[in-house]
Fold this protein.
Amino acid sequence: MSPALRRQAPLLATAGILVILFATAAFLYEGFFSGRVVVNLFSDNAVLGIVAVGMTLVIFTGGIDLSVGAVVGFVSIFTAIMIQRGYPPALVAVAALAIGGGLGAGMGALIHAFRLPAFLITLAGMFLARGGAFWISTESVGIDHPVANALSGFELGLGPVGLPTTALTVIGVLALGYVAAHHTRFGRNLLAIGGNENSAVLMGLPVGSAKVWAYTINGALAALAGLVATIYTGSGNPSTGLGLELDAIAVVVIGGTLLAGGRGHMLGTLLGLLVFGTIQTALLFDGRLSSWWIRIVVGLLLLLFILLQRGLLRGAARGK
């Protein structure tokens, strides 16, 4: 296998699995192959998709962030409480994004400055954010505000189907994430850091600032996902996002991004999200299987891609 094909193999494998899954579901379930189902793949998984974009950037560096699900929960209840108390939604949204980005920046700075494991620092961030969410409120809080209601009900008409706010947001974030990851110096720096941080330092790359910015953007995107979750459900809940960080990691890895860093593609994250959503939607169409089957299938796919990555790395090492 040529080096170029070896690099693209995980991405091609994900694309092939998506085509097989979608074609099989379309064959088995009437109405599955429709524009509405495709739109729902984005709108129903918007929160996961937004978080996965940020997680991709962090994993590019060889890092990880376990706090994103808790940040989604914190922002969800924070937004609902503040809007219900009469604060302008725009001001609340800016504050939420600043909180998420600030937490990410702090964790990124600690990880880089003190050479601390990302797993431990972001685990502490997870407890901090989730504890703060339940400190604000232990119960769900509904939202009744004209702006929130308008955003929740908005759809951009595209022929027979419309794109709701949630779908538009995740598509926009994926597009911006693709540009940042693959068409800017920042994205190239992240991949270089994940490939070999010591070499990146010797090359004169801004390792510290790039890592801090990766975690900052990731935190801000987690906060944005919390805002989207609040709009989608019409309420804030401190339990929102439980386990979301694991789903996001799974989506990124299934999309072909190397968990050790240094190799990956934002398009793969999109494909991984669609694989996740297709499995979920097929189970809903079937109606006979437990929702826990998505965990089983995703777990098997995750194991498959980890083994594929290991095989490709060994093949690359032999080829040197």
